[in-house]
Sequence to fold (456 residues):
Amino acid sequence: MSQTSKSSTKPGDNKSQGELAWWQLSLLGIGCTIGTGYFLGSGIGIKMTGPSMVASFIIAAAGTYIVFHLLAKMTGEDPQEGSFCYYAGKAYGKWAGFGSGWNYWSSKILIMGSQLTALGLMSQFWFPKIPLWVFAAIYAVLAIAVVLLGTKGFDKVENILAVTKTAAIFMFIILAAVALFGWIHGGSDARPGWPDHWHAFAPGGYRGFWSSLIYAFYAYGGIETIGLMSMQLKKKEEASKAGSVMLIGLTIIYVISIGLVTFMVAHDAISEKESPFVTALKSYDLSFFPHVFNAAIVTAGFSTMTASLFAVTNLLVTLAKDCDAPKLFERKLKFRELPLPSLALATAGISVSIVTALLLPGKIYAYITTAAGIMQMYNWGFIIVSALKVLQLKAKDKTFAAIGLALLLAAVIGVVLESDIRWGFFISLGLSGIIAMVTLIMQKKIWNKQNAKKQA
Fold:
């Protein structure tokens, strides 16, 4: 993660025997990735571009694969606990490891804010008069309680939630297919059907399609977490296989379900305040479905939000060990070995999202989700450029890396083109600017002095 890690840990030192088979890591990755970015955030993209959102998901899958492929190659050659943060430091120096770690921490805080807001919006489906920030606060407290259960308790809760949300997706696909065959009464008279020309395929035009890319990429967010978890594999060299199977599974699920949505309901009927899957089946004689599926979405969102909280809490401990965060955050409670100071800082971060939901209840979900997606692109971009420096890549992989960077850049530029979501870009830029300034101060005031002392 930093030069401290580099000097104290030689390549190959972290080849400890894990417990996971590659297929277990694939399933775990699917469970950790599917969340509100897919269940709700995809609706923002569908509203912008209609059926071409399917193509956005396929393009995003290609970009995501390139990122994971390069991360898996670095893990296979030199497995390290800090994963992409360590490789950034190894490639470009301490500033890169520091910046990469804090960028990831910030992106996860934004993702949790997005998920909290989504959970509030979904809960307002049943209780429309209760303010958004109240629900956000309630779910934040529940997530903290799950993390306080410790690692074993957390794993049990996450396994149950992962099965629930995956079952919900298959429930939608089956019901949608049955409805299209006419075996369920109802349906909208304005059902768009399969698009037969460009305007029907992308009613938002090229700009709408371009702007939708960020939400497709966001739905794959979590692939870097699998990089961190690959240290738990029995065979570290199978990390690439685990990621490939995970991405194939996710892409199939996403393409089929999003394709069904865009076939069943017009894109302008989609709202970011309601899941597109609920909207697609709302006009059918399935009075139970909106309630059951909405509950599944709440479950999915809570699952990924809790996983994100668990991840950032432990990430800050690793940053502290590598002297990239104050040593205070390395401390753990004797009870369940929990890093309480780290958890407290993460709690403070998501509290900002709760306050923002109080002040801007109308636009907050689109803004935070967009900003989280862009921060994710920054992090993935650093993974690619680190691989270019750390690995001795063949021409084919260098070409893949160039394509991956181009796709990530395209997703970020697409946000700037759309005025309704442009504020998300400015939020991500502001956070990245703060991290850059702190990194520069650390470089001049601390790291340069430490290097001078070593050379003296």
Remarks:
- The first helix runs from residue 3 to 8.
- DSSP finds 18 helices and no strands in the chain.
